[in-house]
Amino acid sequence: MKRIAVLTGAGISAESGISTFRDANGLWENHDIMEVASPEGWRNNPQLVLNFYNQRRRQLKEVQPNAAHYFLKDLEEKYEVTIITQNVDDLHERAGSSKIIHLHGELLKVRSEKNENLVQLWTEDLNLGDLAPDGAQLRPHIVWFGEMVPKMEEAIEVVCNADVLLVIGTSLQVYPAASLLNFLPNGKPIYVIDPNSVSVPNNPSIKVIQKKATEGVKELNL
User: Fold this and answer.
1) Domain coordinates of the chain in residue numbers?
2) pLDDT recorded at residue 20
3) What gap in Å lies between CA 209 and CA 180, rounded to an integer?
């Protein structure tokens, strides 16, 4: 069975109504990125960070997966599909995809600020005083700027063994995620779907489809 690796970014969720931080009206407009998405920001003002992610968590309950999410789920009928997502939402899960690697963490999980392995589900607001089993304050289970990306090695292995790579809704400007293109075996096809102009390597195996995710997936020739 053909193996398809899929790298998704904020663009696929944007069509469900989740803002992308690189847009002019994005999530981060009223905050310096480092205030709400870095260990330093957490140490300086944990309440601000908690408020920020509580707002994201509430918004997530108001949106639904879109046609692109369901398209990827339906691919599993013919192919072995693994989704590697930079998104922290659960829209791929809700659409029914079965193999998902979250590179940058998950909005509906929290963890101990002292032990990154103490992770638990969390669907409501997170507050100061909410403690992990080890007694430490719980923090969002998000990979912040300056932190290691623990699932990166797993993602690299998936791409190394893939027959096709789909890149959907990502600017390919966030590393190390953007480097995953380099691990697909030579000559294997890469499809890049994004409505914006995306800088891609000069590679004849790469086909760019400059459309939104829900429209671009219809042009895939797998």
Assistant:
1) 1-18+65-104+149-222, 19-62+109-142
2) 63
3) 19
Nearest C-alpha neighbor of 16 from the set 170, 221, 214, 155: 214
Radius of gyration of the chain from its Cα atoms, rounded to whole angstroms: 18
Q: What is d(CA 198, CA 125) in angstroms, rounded to the nearest whole number?
A: 36
Three-class SS state of 82 = strand
Cα-to-chain-centroid distance, residue 173: 13
pLDDT tens for each residue of 32-74: 788 899 999 999 999 999 999 999 999 999 999 999 999 999 9
Give the residue numbers annotated as catalytic, written as ranges.
104
Question: Cα–Cα distance between 42 and 35 in angstroms, integer?
Answer: 7
19-62+109-142 has CATH 3.30.1600.10 classification: yes
Homologous superfamily assigned to 1-18+65-104+149-222: TPP-binding domain (3.40.50.1220)
Helix (H) or strand (E) holding 1: none
Q: What is the pLDDT of residues 173-212, one digit of tens each?
A: 778 888 999 999 989 999 999 998 888 878 889 999 999 9
pTM here? 0.92
Helix (H, G, I), strand (E, B) or coil at 31: coil
